[in-house]
Amino acid sequence: MKPTGIQIAGEFKGCSSDILNCPETLEQLINKAITDSGMMMVNIISHRFDPVGITVAAILSESHVVVHTYPEAEHASVDIYTCSFNPEPPRRLFEYLKRGLQARRIKHLEILRGDILDNKKTNLITTTAGNGFEIRYEIERMILSQKTDFQQMDIIDNAVFGRMLFLDNDLQIADSDAYIYNEAMIAPSRLLDKINRSLILGGGDGGIANQLLKESGTEITLIDIDPQVIQACKTHIPKVAGNAFENKRLKVINSDAEKFLQSVEKKYNAIFYDLSMHPEIFSVKNKKTYLTDLFRSLEKTLKSNGILSMQCCSAFDSETLEMINKIIPQFFQNVNYKEIFIPSFCEPWVFASARVNS
After folding, report:
1. Which pLDDT value is given to residue 107?
2. pTM of the model
C-alpha cells in the first residue's frame, strides 16, 4: 500500500472554556464530528491534566483525531490525519470542530503526508504577530537551538536584523534595533529626580540593564526565571547586554517574577516589566485574574511616586490593550501609552508607564 495522507493542524482561539474543560462533552463532540464527516471511529480516549487541560484522542479507520485543550487560554490545538488524498472528509471534520468548540479565530495548515511531505521549510522561523497574520524570518545561520528547563530558545542570524533571540518562537530582541526597544522602556524613568533602586522583571537579554547602568547610579535587581537564557545572551548576543552582567550594581535572581513580587514590600523607585502580557503561556490563571494580581503586586512593590514602565503588546492586539487599560488605573495614576514601530518586530509595539496612586 502506497503511503499517502492529509494532515490538518489547527489552532482554535477564543473557544468556550467550559467545553474545553469537560472531557465528556469533548468526546461527544468529536464522536459526532467524525460520524457527520463520513468517517468511522474505532476508539476514543481522554485524559484530564492537573490543574487544567484535556487531551482527547480518537482512532479512525482512516487514522486519528487528537484535540488538546488549554481552557485558561480559551485555546485548543487540533490534529486530524487521514491516510487518503481526499481532503473533503477531514475538512468537514475540521469545520465541525470549529463550530462545536465555538472558536472565534483559527489558524490551520494542510500538510501532504506519505511519500510527499509538503509545507515544511527548515530555514524559516515563524512567530505569531497581531491577530490575522504571522511573521516569518529567514535563518541565515542557526546559532543556538536549545530546550531549556522552561522554554524553547532559538538564536539566529538574519540578513536584515542581525542576531535575534526567540523564546517559544516569540521574538524577544534583535541586536540591530534593540536600542529602540530599550530606549522606550527606560524613557519614563527619566522623569524621576533620582533612582536609588530599580527592578527589572524579565529582561534576560540584559539590554534594559545595560542602558540603565550607563545613565544612572541605580542599583538594579533583575528577575529572570531562566539562567540558560541569560548565559546564552551573554555568549551569543553581547552587543545587547554589553558589560551589564559583570557590573557590581546589577544583581541577578533566577526566580518566578510573580513569586518574587509577593515576597517584597515597597522598595523600588522604578520597575521595568519586560515579561509577556499573555500569561496563558505559563500560568493556569486566566488573563484578567493574572493581570489584576500582577498590577496589585507591582503597586505594593513601588515606593511613593515611583514609576512603572512596561512593554504591553502589539498595537494590533486590541483585546490585551483594552484589558490593560481597564486594570492599570485601579492601582496607578498618570497612565501613558506610547506606540513605537520596532523594525525587527515588523509591527508597532505599545509601551506604557504609570505612577503609584497617591
Report:
1. 86
2. 0.79
